[in-house]
Hints:
Blueprint: H1 10-23, H2 31-44, H3 51-59, E1 64-68, E2 75-81, E3 97-113, E4 125-133, E5 138-141, E6 146-162, E7 172-175, E8 180-183
Antiparallel strand pairs: 1-2, 2-6, 3-4, 3-5, 3-6, 7-8
Helix pairs in contact: 1-2
The site of fe (ii) ion (FE2) has 4 residues, from loops.
Amino acid sequence: MAINAAVKGDSFERYIEEIRSIWGDGKDPQLPFKVKDLMANLFSSTTSDEPWMAQLIREGKPSRELYRDPDFGFIQMGHVHSKGHGNAPHDHGPCWVVYGAYRGLTEITLYRRTDDGKEPGRATLEKKELHRLGPGVVYPYLAGDIHSTHAVETPAVVFRFLSYDLLKVERHRYDLEKDTVSVV
Ligand SMILES: [Fe+2]
């Protein structure tokens, strides 16, 4: 398996193998929830002194690609966020994503659109839900879910599983102050 040479660990390799074994055609609507469970298992079976995890934490990189699947196209990212890290509301277009916290506390806000979407470039949002991701907490977000993230307790070690390469799809970013939406 083509796992990044710096990320060799039994628990991580097992996690990737488990995802590959259930992937099928990638269209099972339960997949995001199955990956959520597998990621939670990964966290509970990985101690912070396991070399690959210790290295990830020690290096403290804001963003790192840990694995990219050559057959199915999914990607596992690892992030270490410092105080104040956050982003504007966005969606992942046609892709789904699983966010999980290994350390720290990250808040993820979910939004609903309150406009009818008929005026190009314009969007109004209201907050729908707040997820607090402390250690071991994992949530899936489905295609079109609008969300933003905010690191509350840091360093926040966050895993982000992408169903596909986001650079290859059309997705959206929202501006809460200007009530606008733009293609990323
Ligand atoms: Fe996101």
